[in-house]
Amino acid sequence: MNLRIFNSLTKTIEEFKPLNPANVTFYGCGPTVYDHVHIGNLRSFVLYDLLKRVLEFNNFQVQFIENLTDVDDKIIKRSAEMGISPSELSEKFSKVFFDDISKLNILPANNYPKATEHVSEMIKFIEVLLGKGLAYQEADGSVYFDVSKFANYGKLSGVDKSQIKSGTRILSDEYSKDDVQDFALWKMVKGSEVGWDSPWGKGRPGWHIECSVMSQQFLGDTIDIHAGGVDLLFPHHENEIAQSEGVSGKSFVRYWVHGEHLLVDGAKMSKSLGNFYTLVDIENKGIDPLALRYLFLTAHYRDKLNFTWESLTAAQNALNNLRETIRNWDQPVVGCAEHEQRFTEALDNDLNTAQALAILWELVKSDYPTSAKAGSLLKMDQVLGLGLAEFVAKKIDVPENVMELVSQREEARKNSDYHKSDQLRKQIKDLGFEVLDTLDGSKVNKIN
Ligand SMILES: [Zn+2]
C-alpha cells in the first residue's frame, strides 16, 4: 500500500503522488515568535514532523520549509509594551521555539525563513498582483487584495462567496470567519513605526503574503504539501491561494493537510480561562516533553485531542514503562517483518498513529526474541520520534545502596509519607540516579 493522506481541498483521502517523485516539496506555517508557543501550536509542529518522517520512511526526499513570522500586529504591540525592538523580541522567542521543538524530537526543517528577510520579494509579489488588477491601493497607501477579482476565492474553505463584501477592507492581521473581505497585502505605517520603504511609501507586509512569497521562493510555484492547524484554513490559507495563484496562474498546493485543535479540559485554550499551557508548564511539573509527543501520537491528527494533566501523566507512565522494558532487551538484529508491515500500513493510512502505537505495544509484549523486537522497535521509532534508541538494550547497574534507598522510598510512598519520599528522591539523585514512578512500581535511571 502506498501513502494515503486526507486532502482538505478535495475532502477525500488520496494516494500521495508528488509532482517530482524524487523530491517532495512541503511547506508548514510556522510560529509568530512573540511569546512561548502553546501546546496547541506544538501539536501542529509535531504533525509536520510526523508527516515528514512518514514521507522519508516511504523513501521520498523531502524539502521542508517552515516560516518564522517575525513582524506582525502582535509582535509590534508586545515589543512596544516591553520597551524593546521587534527584532529583539522575535530573536528571543525564535530561540525559545527552537528549544521547544528540539525537546520534542522534531527534526529540523531545511530552512526557517524569516518574514523580515524577504520583504523585497514581497514587494515584487504585490507589484505583480497590482499589475494584474487583483489588488488596489487605498488613499492612505495601504494595498489590499480584491477578493471579488479572484474567481476561485473560497475553493479551500468553501466560504459563501455571496458573503464577499466587495470594497470592504480588513487591515488587521487576524480576522474572523465572517469577514469575507479584502485583506491587506501592505500596511502603511506612520512615523517611527517599524516599516520598510516601498513604491507605496513606508509600510510593512500583511501576515498572509509572507507564506505565499517564501513558499514560492524556496519551493516553486506549485508545491506538493502545505500544512497548518485547522484554524489557519480560513482566512490564512484561502488568502495564500488567492495571492499565489493570482501571481503564478498555476495551482498553488496539491495536498492541503490540516491538524485539528487541541482542547484543554474539554475547552478551547485561552489565557482568560487559565487553561493556556506551554512546554515550560509541562517541564515545571517534572514531565518529559516527549511524553507530550507520545500523547499527541495517541490521537489521530484530524481528531480533536483533549489535553488533561491526567492524560499527560498516563502518557508519561506509558513512556516510562516502554523505556524500562526495552532496557533489558538484547542488542537489535533484523526485526519482525509482520509487525513492521502492519505498522507501516497504519501510518500510510492517513497517519493512523494510534494504531501504529498499538502495534508497537503488541510487538513489545510479543514472544519474539528481544533482539528482533529491538530491531523493529528502532525502525518504528524513526517515524514516531520518541527517542527510544537511547534506552534499547541499555541495562544499567544500580548499586546496592541506591536500591536500598529506592525500596525505602517505595515504603514511604505506600504510607503516603511524601515528605520522606521526596527526601529519599533527593538522596538518590545525589548518588547520580533518578527514580521514576511507573505502573509497575519504581524504576531507576542513571543520570547522564
Ligand atoms: Zn502561513
UniProtKB/TrEMBL annotation:
GO cellular component: cytosol
GO molecular function ontology, one term from the record: ATP binding
Domain Cysteinyl-tRNA synthetase class Ia DALR: 342-392
Its EC number(s): 6.1.1.16
List of residues binding ATP: 271
UniProt main location, coarse: cytoplasm
One GO term of the biological process aspect: cysteinyl-tRNA aminoacylation
Localization (cell): Cytoplasm
Keyword Repressor appears in the UniProt entry: no
Locus of motif 'KMSKS' region: 268-272
Catalytic activity: tRNA(Cys) + L-cysteine + ATP = L-cysteinyl-tRNA(Cys) + AMP + diphosphate
Alphabetized InterPro entries for the sequence: Cys-tRNA-ligase, Cys-tRNA-synt_Ia_DALR, Cys-tRNA/MSH_ligase, Rossmann-like_a/b/a_fold, tRNA-synt_1_cat_dom, tRNAsynth_Ia_anticodon-bd
Cofactor(s) needed: Zn(2+)
Sites where the protein binds Zn(2+): 29, 211, 236, 240
Keyword Ion transport found: no
Residue ranges annotated as motif 'HIGH' region: 31-41
Alphabetical keyword list: Aminoacyl-tRNA synthetase, ATP-binding, Cytoplasm, Ligase, Metal-binding, Nucleotide-binding, Protein biosynthesis, Zinc
Cofactor binding comment, as recorded: Binds 1 zinc ion per subunit.
Subunit structure: Monomer.
Record-stated family: Belongs to the class-I aminoacyl-tRNA synthetase family.
HAMAP family: Cys_tRNA_synth
Protein name per Swiss-Prot or TrEMBL: Cysteine--tRNA ligase
Organism, as annotated: Candidatus Daviesbacteria bacterium RIFCSPLOWO2_01_FULL_40_24
